[in-house]
Amino acid sequence: MANETHLDRTDFAILRLLTKDAWLSNKQIAAAVGLAPSSCHERIKSLRARGVLLGAHAEVNLEAIGLALEAVLFVQLGKLEAGAVDDFVKSTAAIPEVRSVFLVSGRSDLIVDVAVRDMQHLKEIISKHFNRHDVVLRVETSVVFDSRRQHSLP
Q1: Where in the sequence is the domain holding 139, given as residue range(s)?
Q2: Sequence-distant (≥ 6) Cβ neighbours of residue 95 within 8 angstroms
Q3: CATH of the domain at 24
Q4: Are 67 and 130 found together in one domain?
């Protein structure tokens, strides 16, 4: 968020509604926050223009599309030069099976969430994109048995 971005209660109300259901119509949002639809539309345009509202995304049942296995990779890097780390994070985020990449402190340098078809697919992803990369020291993998995601604002 930009340093000069001022958000009022109405902006936060709009953001809360959209984080719960991005498919709400402008008319529904306007009614919920007590604005005219045209004013609400302008507010949403402004939130996008100021870089506060970055996008809207559909939540997909991964199993329904053949991605029955989710795993979290804990990646330890050997070379921590800024350029090498940035390049590796960027290339990791571009892998189609990667859902999230977090550059973190602690024992691991990256935490990577992946969705794959099965264990063989997971093995291929780790082998092709991580184990063969010269910046990677070690990859520890945890299979996700169940998860809950929260999309609302804190």
Answers
A1: 63-144
A2: 114, 125, 129
A3: 1.10.10.10
A4: yes
pLDDT class of 59 with cuts at 50, 70, 90: confident
- Domain CATH code at residue 100: 3.30.70.920
Domains of the chain: total? 2
**For residues 34 and 79, is the Cβ–Cβ distance under 8 A?**
no
Does pLDDT of 79 surpass 80? no
Are residues 75 and 109 located together in one domain of the fold? yes
Segment (H or E) for 31: helix 26-33
Per-residue confidence (pLDDT) for residue 4, from 0 to 100:
56
First to last CA, the chain: 15
CB atoms within 10 A of CB 151: 11
Q: Is 143 left (phi over 0), alpha (psi -120 to 50) or beta?
A: beta
Half-sphere exposure of 113 (CA within 13 A, CB side): 9
User: pTM of the prediction?
Assistant: 0.82
